[in-house]
Design brief:
The protein is of the alpha+beta class and 431 residues long. It is 66% helix and 10% strand. It has three domains: 205 residues, no CATH class; 78 residues, Single alpha-helices involved in coiled-coils or other helix-helix interfaces (Up-down Bundle), CATH 1.20.5; 117 residues, Heat Shock Protein 90 (2-Layer Sandwich). A hairpin with a 6-residue loop joins strand 1 and strand 2.
Length: 431
């Protein structure tokens, strides 16, 4: 029954309307493109040619915008808007604007769409008109056949001989044929508008390069925000921690100095307390320095650095690192802090009895897998820090995969791009 209703669904009507509108829209785009390009080319020897060409391309960009909206409204095809016209080096003025329009790939891809779409639009228009007119006419024939004065049929020999439909059974048969024509036409139209979707996405949407630039700009903003947050955290830790202890230490030593001659025993006690404060301040500074970039990571690499982190974890951790060489320092640092944060999550949230860290390299990726036998249920939405970790990895072309069913176990896999210490990627497969 679903197939029988296919020609009468809202989707079929929207797709048919889109295919019908293809022709008038394509004529407008084609005529504008051909006329504008031809006239502009002929006037290039004058000062009018380039501005006219830029105006033509700008109009075709607007035409592309209308076509994207038409595809969105009638086909439900969400195509991202391409970037605006960008002036190079912040220049302004007429010449800068003309140059920006002429350099924009969006302008030329919109022009290509306007030039290439007309033949396809003729085909879609013809299919819709033929299938809808013939199908609906045959389907509804029993309703309007009484308005005809003569028998209905097909004259095959020019002498009035042929197929004559003059009884209810034959009229019903014609209706069935009309329904089949509508069903087949709906399927054909659906396939044709699928091609339209691809054409709109490929020629009127943002190019792959533009999408990549946009993604890189977004990732850069994430990195900048993360770096700013880290700097604020370091400043806060220094102000509230070591700095406050050092200020108190200075005051205690000042009081001890005053009491040195009057009450040597009290002064000795105060110096002893100050000595303990110095140890605490030094420990806080070491912890802060380790949070910025641990010396053991710089000197000895991921293995010893993560073994040190695992030793401080409240859960027993097994560390298995299979790397025959060190990656670039930036990648190594991200891998270290990613693993450290995952271990902190295990300590705080998992109720696990054991955890495992595995790090290896495959082709041009550095793989990190942290597993625990805790309660599971880890997600990026419950404040465990995984959302921020995901953003930071994405910013360097990495990713984070989480498998954490309720009841456990939890396996979190992080991928980072492998870079050699000199900054170049490598395609060698060590494992």
């Amino acid at each position: 029954m679903t197939v029988l209703r296919l020609p009468f669904t809202a989707r079929a009507w929207r797709e048919g309307l889109y295919a019908l509108l293809n022709l008038p829209m394509a004529i407008v785009g084609f005529v504008t493109a051909v006329t504008g390009l031809a006239v502009s080319a002929g006037l290039l020897i004058t000062f009018v040619g380039l501005p006219l060409l830029a105006l033509t391309l700008l109009w075709l960009r607007t035409f592309g915008y209308v076509e994207r909206q038409r595809a969105r409204l009638l086909l439900g095809s969400e195509v991202a808007e391409p970037g605006p016209v960008r002036h190079r080096d912040g220049k302004t003025g007429l010449l800068a604007w003309i140059g920006a329009v002429l350099r924009s790939d969006v302008s030329w891809r919109s022009t290509a769409y306007a030039l290439l779409h007309l033949p396809w639009a003729i085909a879609t228009f013809t299919v819709v008109v033929t299938t809808w007119a013939g199908g609906f006419a045959a389907l509804t024939l029993p309703l309007w056949s009484w308005t005809l004065n003569e028998d209905i049929g097909i004259n095959t020999d020019g002498q009035g001989n042929g197929w004559i439909w003059d009884n209810p059974f034959e009229l019903a048969l014609v209706s069935v044929v009309g329904l089949l024509l509508l069903i087949s036409g709906s399927l054909l139209i659906r396939g044709m508008v699928a091609v339209d979707r691809l054409a709109v996405r490929a020629l009127l949407g943002p190019s792959a390069a533009a999408s990549r630039v946009s993604q890189l700009e977004e990732d850069r903003s994430v990195v900048v925000d993360t770096s700013a947050a880290d700097l604020r955290r370091i400043e806060r830790d220094l102000h509230d921690g070591a700095q406050a202890r050092l200020v108190a230490l200075a005051m205690d030593l000042g009081l001890a100095k005053e009491k040195l001659t009057e009450d040597p025993e009290a002064a000795a006690r105060m110096v002893d307390e100050a000595h303990g404060e110095v140890k605490l301040a030094l420990q806080e500074l070491r912890d802060l320095a380790r949070g910025i970039h641990p010396a053991v990571l710089t000197d000895r690499g991921l293995g010893p650095a993560l073994s040190s982190v695992a030793a401080r974890c409240t859960v027993p951790v097994t560390v298995d690192i299979d790397l025959d060489q060190r990656p670039a320092p930036a990648i190594e640092g991200i891998a270290y802090f990613t693993t450290s944060e995952l271990l902190q999550n295990i300590s705080k949230h998992s109720n696990a009895h054991h955890a495992t860290i595995e790090i290896w390299r495959t082709t041009d990726r550095l793989m990190i897998q942290v597993t625990d036998n805790g309660q599971g249920g880890a997600t990026t939405t419950h404040g465990t820090g995984l959302a921020g970790l995901t953003e930071r990895l994405t910013a360097v072309d990495g990713l984070l995969a989480i498998q954490s069913p309720h009841g456990g176990p939890t396996t979190i896999t992080a991928e980072l791009p492998w870079r050699e210490p000199d900054g170049s990627p490598s395609g060698r497969r060590p494992r």
